[in-house]
Amino acid sequence: MFIHTNRLLIGDQQKAAATVLGQAFAKDSFMAYVLPDANTRVQQLTKLFLPLIRCSQRNGGVDITAGGGGVLAWVPGKVFSSPIKFLELFRSGMLWIPGLVGLSAFKRLKVHDDVCEHALIQHAPKDFAYIWAVGVRPDQAGKGLGKQMIQSALNDMRQQGYTTCWLRTENPHNVGLYEHLGFQQVHTEIPSGRQQQYWVMFQNL
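RESULT FIELD:
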């Protein structure tokens, strides 16, 4: 069912995986807030997710469903609990995100992410795994691919010695889905001056 791709994807394959996530999040309300132009959103999201794919391959894992309809990327929690080294920023392409998606979009994303990541670090234990992104292409929705990718990733995390998995979502419809998969709500808030609520959730492994 899965192509386990940790450290295996190359250029075009990385972009294809990022495009799947871009398509999956094209109508997401938070991403619409970050990238208001619907006509260019998938393209911009692909640029945003590509460094995430690269970073996940080197530090955690990437799962792609057979046929390429779904992608999940996860990383160790240390990615958030300590500054990412310059070399990783450079190698993954994260260093260039402001120029790729535009300064205004980057500022909206960063202000929100900083609040969420602060809450994550406050609540999570020292060593944890984090699902950075999971998405299914719209034409593949409803087939249970997201659930299967999450279960596969959780097994990988267990095998690598992690004891908890954490994630966050800005989509209220996803909260119940994650709870059904065994995740528990730990924290939720609407950052001051904004209308984008988020939820931090975790599951013991």
